[in-house]
Amino acid sequence: MSAGNVDERGDEQEQVSPKTLRRLERASGELANASIEAIQQRLPWFQRLPADQRASVLLVTQTGVSNFVSWLQDPTEAIRLTAEAFRAAPKDLSRWVSLRQTVDMVRAAIDVFEQRLPSLAEDEPERILLTESILRYTREIAFAAATSYAAAAEARGAWDARLEALVVDGIVRGDAEESLLSRAAALGWEPGSEATVLIGNAPSDDPPTIVYQVRSRAARAGRPVLLGVQGSRLVVVLGEPSDDRAGHRAAASIAEAFGEGPVVVGPTVSSLAEARHSANDAMQAQRAVVAWPSAPRPVPAEDLLPERALAGDPEAERQLVEGIVMPLSDAGTALMDTLDTYLEVGGVLETCAKQLFVHPNTVRYRLRRIADITGRTASNPRDALVLRVALAVGRLAKSRGLW
């Protein structure tokens, strides 16, 4: 039902008289001030706003009140007039006044209007008409507010998505730390938070669906994430693992949001500034994981050191030499000789002991020492592969004078 036109029963309804409209125009400033006073009394958070922000809210309120008179004269202008109130506000209004707070302000203004407007009417029919008009106009204001906030949220979401993609791309490419950290801070990422990079296939061609799946799983795991879809590849930066077990559970949960195929997990680094190292290891591991068809999902990049070394990854070669070969070499030639012989005879302990001219218990003792030093058990097939490749890489590096 529109003021001054036809009601729901189809009966003609009188318009607000020109005399009443003039009263409303003269009273608009007083109504706006009364609305602001009611907002200040009922909403404590409003008093805590800086002066410039309170002034912006006052501008919106005054515009809404003055437009009410125009709306009474021509209800067909409802959408334009109500939206105009919010277009007059600063673009960042939605950042410091939430939609819930805006609704509370509208309610406070409605109470003021309901109390003061009826007294401006000429007679009882006009009082009824004004009361109904208030309800319809404030309904339009509420819809305009919701539309304004929805548009702001969409624009902010689109901007955040582009910024997030830039951050993830920068991590993968190894961009300068300062620009990366400033962008991540704008997204709410704590600069000192630990970070772990996961890389795998994207589950679909629909980025919003991918974002929802990853974020919902991250939320259940209680972990912040940054993600980027790069063609068919999905890159996720997972934050704040409280411990290794919790971090592994979170990575396993996030891995379920990836598409078919392997998902590799880079090492956890101390901050986002170091995330490029995790991303580099994960990238190299993703290229090499095809050489291990039975790799678990997700698979840590460090578990793919042999395949990465065979694929020519210098970082994997360095880790094998520094983590396995050099510690064994420092422990003495007996351990190196025992490991080399044990692997050459196919892991047969007695045969290894005969070739070394030692007792089998001596071989057992040395193998335990090797496991303590390297974290790898030579009798385990996978660990044996890692140790064998490490020895080969170590010899090649030594022949080139690299250690």
From TrEMBL:
Entry keyword tRNA processing: no
UniProt cross-references to InterPro entries, sorted A to Z: CdaR-like_regulators, CdaR_GGDEF, PucR_C-HTH_dom, PucR_C-HTH_sf
GO MF assignments: DNA binding
Domain CdaR GGDEF-like: 174-288
Keyword DNA-binding found: yes
Chain intervals for the UniProt region annotation (Disordered): 1-20
UniProt xrefs under Pfam families: GGDEF_2 (PF17853), HTH_30 (PF13556)
Residues covered by the PucR C-terminal helix-turn-helix domain: 335-392
Cited Gene3D superfamilies: PucR C-terminal helix-turn-helix domain
Keywords, in A-Z order: DNA-binding
Similarity annotation: Belongs to the CdaR family.
Name the UniProt record assigns to this protein: DNA-binding PucR family transcriptional regulator
